[in-house]
Design brief:
119 residues, mainly beta, 7-stranded mixed sheet, 4-stranded antiparallel sheet, 11 strands, globular
Length: 119
């Protein structure tokens, strides 16, 4: 069974940085993609970005382009979300998800980690 567990959330000041980690287990992730989502209070969950396990190709939502970076360590089965130049509107619960690259959905979701950015 695929499992993903997030860590690294917390409190940061506007303009600061945080790095989230997502530890994945349960299978080899060849031909899978990993994603970061977030959900702010009173808002729908939104996709932050994705990374393909094989090539490390990334996609980002417009609001985080140039500020957030997704990477993966294949030897440790960990995906990272480096968040720089944080803004108050980045405050949300951040979720990691994993699924086959060719599928439309995700097979595993983490429990989420809170990120709070103070202005």
């Amino acid at each position: 069974q695929v499992k993903v567990v997030e860590s690294g959330g917390g409190l940061a000041q506007a303009g600061g940085s945080l790095r989230l980690s997502c530890a994945a287990s349960g299978r080899t992730f060849t031909n899978w993609r990993m994603a970061w989502f977030r959900q702010a209070p009173g808002k729908e969950r939104e996709l932050v970005g994705t990374i393909t396990w094989n090539l490390g190709s990334t996609l980002y939502t417009d609001s985080v382009k140039g500020r957030f970076t997704i990477s993966r360590d294949k030897s440790k089965n960990i995906v990272y979300l480096q968040m720089d130049s944080l803004k108050s509107e980045d405050t949300a619960v951040y979720y990691c998800a994993a699924g086959p690259t060719m599928a439309t959905g995700y097979h595993a979701w983490g429990q989420g980690t809170q990120v709070t950015v103070s202005s």
